[in-house]
Specification:
With 160 residues, this protein is mainly α. Helix content is 49%, strand content 4%. Its main location: membrane.
Length: 160
């Protein structure tokens, strides 16, 4: 009985997850298509709302399809309360749950992640602070960029 459920559920979940992932890629691609100031200016208007609502909903749905149900206790800090949001131990795919629950904030990520097929487009739509491990000034530049975004008085989304 349990094996039979697994044989049926695993392919269904994989197909649904793949469909949701491709939808998320499409949403991210549309929101960033011909984006003015690509990466240097924050997304505004319909582009930002599309990322916040579309990607957040799709991410939550993907985790639900995979069998995870997340309940939030308490209240998520707003951008004005906390321009920098710290999540730890950011080492797994569960970080995306935090992103979905907090309205798809900007993240700090390796530069190499931006060139990954499908995930790279989705990641780029979050306007990440890219960290290059080969650049000796990368740590200083990353801190400066996070500070600039945190002090932007709400122009940039929260940084996680």
């Amino acid at each position: 009985q349990i094996v039979l459920q697994g044989i049926i559920l695993l392919p269904l979940r994989a197909i649904c997850f793949t469909f949701i992932l491709l939808l998320a890629w499409m949403v991210a691609s549309i929101a960033t298509f011909r984006q003015p100031g690509r990466g240097f200016l924050p997304l505004e208007g319909w582009r930002r709302r599309m990322i916040q609502t579309g990607l957040s909903s799709l991410t939550r749905t993907a985790y639900f399809v995979m069998g995870f149900q997340v309940k939030v206790k308490g209240k998520v800090a707003s951008l004005q309360e906390a321009p920098i949001f710290v999540a730890a131990p950011h080492s797994s795919f569960f970080d995306a749950i935090i992103c979905a629950l907090t309205g798809m904030p900007s993240i700090v990520s390796r530069t190499e992640n931006l060139s990954t097929p499908v995930f790279g487009a989705i990641l780029s739509s979050l306007q990440p602070v890219a960290v290059s491990r080969q650049d000796p000034d990368s740590r200083k530049n990353t801190v400066a960029e996070i500070t600039r975004r945190a002090l932007s008085r709400g122009q940039w989304p929260q940084v996680i």
